[in-house]
Amino acid sequence: MSPRSQIASAFPLPEWQALLRLCSFPPAPGNGACDAAKLLALAEAHGMTGQLATNLARHRVADGEPLQNGLRSAKRAQVLATMPLIAELFRVVDILAAARIETAVVKGPVLSVRAFGDPSARQYGDIDFLLRSADIARAFEALVAAGFKARIPAHAIRVGKTPGQYMFRRAGTSPLIELHTERTLRYFPRSLPIDDVFHRITTVSIDGRHVPALAAEDEFVLISIHGAKHFWERLMWIADVAAIVHGHPDLDWRRVQQSAAVVGARRMVHVALLLAERLLVVPVPEPMKRGVESDPACSKIVGKIESWLPYAGNQPPPLMHRALFRFRMRGQLLAGARYLTRLLLSATEEDWSDDSQSAKGTLRESLGRPFRLAKKYRRDPNAPGH
């Protein structure tokens, strides 16, 4: 039986409740039987082995002992996997700094440090940078000159085509570098005010080195949108939210509200907070309670997420449900329709055609995108989308 079939056929499992319990803040002792091997497999599927190991190391949980041996090897593998990624992070920071390109590292190790105090505590497979769209051509040249191979052709950048992200990898290495701009962040309901965001830029210390990062409030909005982009199909994204809320009582929630309002992501932030409260026992912060409670759709959306979340992406919502989810995440009728339409018609590199530089080619790409997506998700409902 495939891993997907094993997970999909096994629910409801006591292991799911155990995973929630052991990853809550703080973890709680259990009172039921739990298969340690199944729990470790479930934690791996949800990207939670690092967080689970961290929680059990910091808190004495009586029924956590059987997990320790398996977690030690999983944690060791995760630490080893993050080392080359962090080395590549430092390399790219230096390259962009030498080219005088302002940037910020987002998610990945920065989020891991902010949420869990350790760059290897959470799972990630690439390093993401945010920079201005106006700087992408210079960043492309600087990285290629330093030996990186680009997945997006140079001519596409010259004519102003915007992919889902700009991906780079040095020959003979595995770490993947992704560059994002205000134009690639399609799942932001409104365009990110990049200059305002960079005005608030800060640093986070990783292995004794300060790397540029978004203000914590701006990153909180970003991870709320990122979770919504992926339908909150993995517990790791909810754990990030819960850890930030739990570990940063000084977070400026007024600034979070303002940043979310500017990009049209209020409901996305409210859903993120409600998920953290319901699943990982982290109360919605007092300044945010009124907004969450005054939007009854949030509770219904969270209920839908809870129906597919345990399966770790192995039983995703059907195509029409995905479209309805996008529509509802925007918050209002007309705004939801505009948001869904834009996502359906915003062509990425998968939609590009040979004559994409012409007006007709660009129009054909946009109009053909909904049909490509429908075909793609009918064939493979687990396929990642842009």
Structure description:
The chain starts with a helix and ends in a 7-residue tail after the last helix. The radius of gyration is 21 Å and the shape is globular. With 386 residues, the protein is of the alpha+beta class. Helix 2 packs across helix 3, helix 4 packs across helix 5 and helix 10 packs across helix 13. The strands form two sheets. The chain has a five-stranded mixed beta sheet. It has a two-stranded antiparallel sheet with strand order 6-7. The relative contact order is 0.09. The chain has 18 helices and seven strands. The N terminus is likely disordered. The chain has two domains: 344 residues, Beta Polymerase, domain 2, CATH 3.30.460; 40 residues, no CATH class.
Q: How would you sum up this structure in a few lines?
A:
The protein has 386 residues and is an alpha+beta fold. The protein has helices at residues 3-10, 14-22, 36-45, 49-58, 68-98, 108-116, 136-145, 154-158, 194-199, 216-229, 235-247, 253-262, 266-280, 286-293, 297-308, 319-330, 333-345, 359-379, and strands spanning 103-106, 126-131, 148-150, 166-170, 176-180, 202-206, 209-213. The strands form two sheets. The chain has a five-stranded mixed β-sheet. Strands 6-7 form a two-stranded antiparallel ribbon.
Adjacency order of strands in the biggest sheet: 1-2-5-4-3
Please give the radius of gyration in angstroms.
Answer: 21 Å
- The number of distinct structural domains comes to 2
* Strand percent estimate: 5-15%
Fold-level CATH name of the largest domain:
Beta Polymerase, domain 2
Give the overall pLDDT as a whole number. 87
Tell me the overall shape.
globular
Query: What's the SSE pattern?
Result: HHHHHEHEHEHEEHEEHHHHHHHHH
Number of helices: 18
Helix percent reads: 55-70%
Residue stretches low in confidence (pLDDT < 50, at least 5 long) are: 1-10
Under the CATH scheme, the architecture of the largest domain is 2-Layer Sandwich
Terminal Cα span: 30 Å
